[in-house]
Amino acid sequence: MNSRRTGSARSGSSRSTSSSADAPAPFTGFGAGLVAFYEALEHNNSRAWFAENKGRYESEVLRPLQALARAVEPTYGAAKIFRPYRDVRFSSDKRPIKEQAAMWLDRGDGTGYYVQVSADGLLLGGGMHQPPKPTLAAFRARVDSEAGVKQIRRILSAAQRHSVLLSEDFRLATVPRGYPRDHPSADLLGLTSLILVRHFPPGAWMSTKAATAKITDTWNAMTAWNTLIASL
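-> structure tokens emitted (232 positions)
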């Protein structure tokens, strides 16, 4: 994902459902204090500070994410909300708290949709983050065929009309072994992650119902890509 605060899309997750006996609240946007919370966390990233401000995290971040999960699961797949704690055991970065919150929607075919909120705003994604070798090989074979690459380019062009872009964060330094360096689709052959992304800067809209449309419209623009990747 193309963000300085991107979290893992597969580890440290928790179920998104609420244990409250009350009727669950609908999603009407994220908390108005979400950006301020994460800006403060950047300067106070400790377990003690987070414990003192956990109520802010729950009201501004977690409960809205849970409400979003309930709203979108029927259409976009099973939701997992990632835990706020970082695994620092083998990392030189010892900050204990993630400076973003994220959720993954699993379509059940290896692909899915991603949403992340932070002081940077809203980051949306779709596709397959770490495709297995057979899937990556099948994608490259599709790229290497005239009909296949035309189909891929059409899907990417349609996504770009919605400001959805192919992530360049994970790629080889050159083309994979067995392909010529001057291959006309070297930009696609070198991918090691099959992810589309769109970033929205922070704004007042994040705490309104307008957030729902931005999220679902963007994911809808990624659906053809997910369907292609799942077919490989």
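DSSP finds seven helices and seven strands in the chain.
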